[in-house]
Amino acid sequence: MIERLKVATIVLMAMLTGGGMARAQDADTLKTGSERRSNQNVMLNASYASIPRTISLGIPEWGTYIMDDGLPASMFKDYFPGYRSWRSGLSTESMQLTRLDESAIQLGTTGFFPMSVSKTGAEKTEGEAKYTANQYGRHEIELHTASPLGNGWGIDLNVYQSFDRGSNHLDFTTYQERIRFYKAGISKKLTDGLFKATYLFMNYLDLTDQYGPFIFVGDGSVKPYGDFRLGRDQYIPETSFYEYLDINDGKRKTGRYTEDLGAPVHVLTACYNRSFGNGLDMDLSSRFRLSDGRSKSTFLNGITGVAAGDGYAYVDGTPYSGNVQSRFFMYDEDHFKEWLTTLKVKKTQNKHTSVAGANFWFNWSQSSSMTSNFAYEAKKDPKALTYNGELYYVHNTGAQYLDGFQSRLALFAQDEWRINPKINFHYGLRAEYSGISGKAAHNLEGKDNNSRYNGWSLQSPGVTLTPFRRNVINGAATLIGYYYFNSHWGAEINAIASLNHPNLGQYSDSSFPFEGAQPSYILRGGVNFKNKWLDFQSLLTYLKRTNSYEMGMWTHKLSHAAGGYPAGYNETVYVSSLYDMEVLGWTTDMILSPFKGFTFHGLFTFRIPRYQNYSFTPVFSDGYSEEYDFSGKRITSSSGTEIELEPSYQTGKWRFWLSARYYSRRYINITNTLYLNPRWETFGGVDFKWNEHVSLSLNVVNFLNVTGASAGMREASLATDVTPYQNYLTSGSYIRPFTVEFSTLLKF
Predict the structure, then answer these.
(1) Around Cβ 245, how many Cβ atoms within 10 Å?
(2) How far is the C-alpha of 637 from the C-alpha of 77, rounded, in Å?
(3) β-pairing, 67-68 with 114-118?
(4) Is 276 left (phi over 0), alpha (psi -120 to 50) or beta?
């Protein structure tokens, strides 16, 4: 009943108010798929305030690519995510999403990714200042100015500072997220083009901790654990330091969260655009990026009940009995250098619009990842616990090391062929050479000398760094056909095929990664309609990705003490596996503009995501081992139904907007025996343009105030009997709680 009331509330507000980025089209003639673009509110992220959300195709995606001024912000979307050297703000001229065929051909991977363009100078000196704050103590300050210098030269300066205390204030730090962003650009307008160069420095410190305990009821719902408030109370000890065993020299070391962590990045970008006339244009972009970062991440291992004699104690030595939350801790030291260059030439003529280009992308990486575990009371404002006298224990069982280089050299071409007023074809081809080389601590030829264990380092007896080298060909091909029945109705069918291999970041584990091809296929077909008040598209989609490689984390409760862990401990092991995924879906996307000032964007997706050919055999310290086969199971964390409702209404100086996303049941474990009920992610706001110099905004995040609790429950990752997980105490992540943001924008 409550869920139905929430749905009714959303629909009613959608009818009465209005949303973010949805927009009406000016003309009433049908647009082809190549012209359908919006940013789909990609910056409205229910989990993070400063990171773009990932737009799902129905299969898991670890992060998202970010395109900026014609180049990726990072060559890897997961290994070193692009948001660490990019942000969307006052220095951004525009932002859209890549099309699926566009990303496949020009980027080498398929998806809807944000694509931004930076501002370049100005006709006259101008400036902007923006201040944003919320009720939890997040403050954002941004300054931007641009000025002409004469003879076509101009400068552009941008400063952004973020101070985020988080909604659950932590004792060991004042700010959970601290961003320092500085960007300076110079541009020259030419008679036939534009040249611009920018320097960017960004330091991203992420100490965010969005975890908490709750009761998993067993019917997909959760309820509070005692007086703990998800999103408001802290669930990590006040300890301000971390300990690790350095894998490079084998020594125990200590670091401080607020002083020793951070990801400083230096980025230099140059872009040259030229028009040669006769419909011929050229874009040349080149970027060098340098980073030396230190970061941490933690993963919940589950909650365990312990007795006074099980080895857990407070820091002062007092034995502890009760519920213990343990976490898997990973500390990374990364050194990256990247040089990315892309050349594109575009030719427009009577029946063709053609693009040809090349990528010259290079990455040098040295990465050391140290792991350990720590424990504390499973309660609000917990105290740290030692295990057998150690605050951080069982070191480097998941350690990773990599020193390598990857090059990606590609040629690509796309063409739009307007055969006649009724038939239109788009097609493209990409051929890419990828070379990888380096050294890592791999087990080769059946040996186990590089297997990780408690106390492992590169200095341990028998450990060797093994060289690796791989040269492969990646590629992609696309074919899209449009048929127009008349100026309003049309049909389309498209096919996208891509071939990829593992990238450099997958060579850091003890197991040598799968080096075979990883093909992906997307087939889509459906109808389009457009008139003065409705722009409508409905497509059936089939997606298949084969040979997905994953170093999965699987958990088992130990039957007896083993591997340095006590009996009853939820041990997590890494197991490499290879599997396929396929999705059958139906998506309807529409934009309505029935009267002046009002637009409504609706996106309705229904899909069936499944694993195929998925089997593996984990081995745990107590000797437990079993072969599992999960072919045909639903893909975890992927909803079968997703709905987006985004209305917007503008009248005079006012604009009212709403963005609401519905996600249906999501399975927690790969056995599909446990699941979480549907949830809404909601945003809304009111914008007021006082005059041409002052604008005010009041935005609300999660106005339904749902927790969005997501139970990792690794201890149940392989469970088939759900009885033990009825009214079960567990822990997991959650989305941002009810948040009110106020922004002021000044232009001068």
Answers:
(1) 21
(2) 19
(3) parallel
(4) alpha
